[in-house]
Structures are given as C-alpha cells and as structure tokens.
C-alpha cells in the first residue's frame, strides 16, 4: 500500500510538565489510575492539536503514554528486572573534529527470564488517538534487535543462551502488536532501529555488541530477517527508522551509512519507507543512497531534535537537492532526525522550538514537493 507523505514526525514529542508530575503522583499512589489516564489523554489531545496546527502529513500520539520509545516492549512485558547499574557512554552533539561533552548514563535493567507480553500499549495509544486524528495516524514500535541492549552476558544467559532467541521472542510480541493494530484500522507502522545506526560506528560495534557476545555481522543478516518478520502484516505500510541514539540531547554513535547500507537497504524487504537520520556530520554523506532499491521511499531526517537552533530554510532545501543526486527526488520526503522525547526527560529543546521545528518540516516539505 504505497503512500507518499512528504512531511513526517518521527514519533515522540516533549512530555508536558503536568504529565511528568502526574506520573510521579501515580507511581507514589497519590492519584488513581483513572485520574492519571485522564491526564495522559489531555497530553495526547494537545500533541495531536500541535501536529495538526503544524500541518504535518502524518502524525502520532507523541508517545505520551510511554516512559521510553521502547515502551511497547519494556513497559509491558515480563522477564525484565532491575540489575546493579552500569553505565553506557553517550556524547553531546559537537562540531566535527572538536571534542564534545560525554556523559555516562546508567543502564539498570536486563532480561532475566523468558519474556511475555502483559498487555498492549500500542492498542491503547492508537484507539484513543484515532478518535481525534484528522491526519493519517502512525504508530511506532521498537526494533526487536534493541533488546540487544537489554541482553546481559551475566544476567540473561540462563533464559537466553543465544541473544538471537531473545530477538525472535521480541519480534513475535511486536508482530502480534502489528496484527492487532491492523485489525483496529492502523495503516502505517514505523519500526525504530537505532541499533542499526550504532553499527555504523566501529567503536560501538566493538563495545556494545562484540564485547557483549553479539555478532554485528549476524545482526545485519539474521537480525534484519527478524525485523522483517515483524513487518509481515497485510494492509500496513511499514517504515524503518535508523538513527544513532537520542537521549536528553546526547547520542551514542557516529559514522556514515556505508557499513550497513548494502545489507539493510536491500535486505529490509518488508519496508516501503526508510527514515534516515541526516541532521549533521555524524550521519555522513548521501552517497550510500545509491545503494537504495529504487522501489523504496526515503525520508530525510534533516531537522535536528537535539539542537535548539532552527535550521536555515535555504540550507535544508539545498541538502534535499544534494540528496536527489543519489536517489529519485519524487521518492523522498522530510522529517526530523529523531523524536523530541525518545526518553521520558526529553531533549533540551523548549516546547516553542519543538513547534517551530515541526512547522519547518511541513513548510519546507510542501515547498520542495509542491
């Protein structure tokens, strides 16, 4: 089912302060679940209104009901447990060749038993947002391979001696989610796969995969086939979003698409659209788009959600022209490079800047493909 949306939002938006406060109150048993759900509903209504006002072609519920973009897996499955914290190195955006700010962010959870779905989070998201959405409504799901960051050689081997067994179980859960969403009338699902962007970075390949006993080459073959299995649902257009990590303005990886382009672009056969991060030097040049199959649709993530500065319109239009040297212009679109609230705290961008960036996406997309 081909679609040609030109102005896309990736998924998550900044959580309003009142929603953050309400979740604390709910977790502390100071308000009832019903009261908390009414506040979540209010936040979703506001995010839908914002995206309608910005004139995007496709919208989401802003992921207001999630603690993290991985919520449809981590928030609603059994088998994940808090562990003694270790840290993962994140970096703050900086100019190429200039040392940037680094931060060790704690990782406190790991898979310790076979995973099972407790309930569906995305069914709740879609059925509520569907009532008010005046534009096509997209639902986002995390890649099953993101469970690589929840698989620990120390804590997970008893349940999953081979991490790919965990990925297959996660894929089965996500496939069930996608089937149920299709039955509810959803027509567009995006799979978020920052782990593929991490494979563009030799340091990350070694530190986060090889050192943990996970073969990067296997991720790009068997792993892509596992991602494909999620997207085998009739009636749904599937998109694959690749970025390099997004956490409070920090990122995990850097490097162009060359190390993954051959495997990912051609092997992701169940995906019609690829949403590719391209907001700065970390993503490299557009040359790898030459390897993109000509039946795909490429969404260029040129607008940053990490930086507060608003991108100059002429620069973005120029970059679209440059990308069109490597892939057909009529099969491209524009988006932000990632969500604004991939994690609960969100990126260091104000709500007004968020709105300005979303309007910029819509304005420039409609100008570039009028």
Question: What can you see in these coordinates?
Answer:
The protein has 370 residues and is α/β, with parallel strands linked by helices. It has one domain: TIM Barrel. The protein is 36% helix and 18% strand. The chain is built from eleven helices and nine strands. It has helices at 17-27, 33-54, 71-74, 121-130, 163-183, 194-198, 202-209, 216-230, 258-267, 313-323, 351-368, and strands at 7-8, 77-91, 102-117, 139-142, 188-192, 237-242, 273-277, 297-303, 332-336. The strands form two sheets. A seven-stranded parallel β-sheet has the order 1-9-8-7-6-5-4. The chain has a two-stranded antiparallel ribbon with strand order 2-3. Strand 6, helix 9 (258-267) and strand 7 (273-277) form a beta-alpha-beta unit. Helix 2 (33-54) packs across helix 11 (351-368). The longest helix is centred in the N-terminal third of the chain and has 22 residues, at 33-54. The radius of gyration is 19 Å and the shape is globular. The model has no long low-confidence stretch (mean pLDDT 90).
